[in-house]
Amino acid sequence: MQDKKVGIVIPIYNVEKYLDECLQSVIDQTYTNLSIVLVNDGSNDNSLSIAKKYALQDERIIIIDKKNGGLSSARNTGIDFFANQYTLQFEKEEQELLKFQIINENYLDICSIYRKNTMLDKNFEIPQIDYIIFLDSD
């Protein structure tokens, strides 16, 4: 069975401080059947230059450069680009995400992955789960 392609949308707005770490984390994944869309949302720092550097090094990376419209606009632009079965969204706050695993049979079309220490269970304790996938409510 062929691995399913995963689309990753990374909205970018003035995140030069975090972008190298974020992009390197995505590129270093063991799951390699990825399309990585970087949506530059009108950054006025070096974020676009950093994105271009990575796009030249990895053919899976596509850059969309647009006028600033906010996070939701950047996400939607990235999501519109895809016709894939799954889409994962990263934000700069999720930069410490190091590994994720995609299971071929999944009923979700659009989801977000969060680090386990950002989530609490019903008893307000950190669950003993490595990574959690949620349907994105945006």
TrEMBL record:
Keyword terms: Transferase
GO molecular function terms attached to this record: hexosyltransferase activity
InterPro entries attached to this UniProt entry: Glyco_trans_2-like, Nucleotide-diphossugar_trans
Domain Glycosyltransferase 2-like: 8-86
Designated name of the protein: Glycosyltransferase
Organism: Campylobacter jejuni
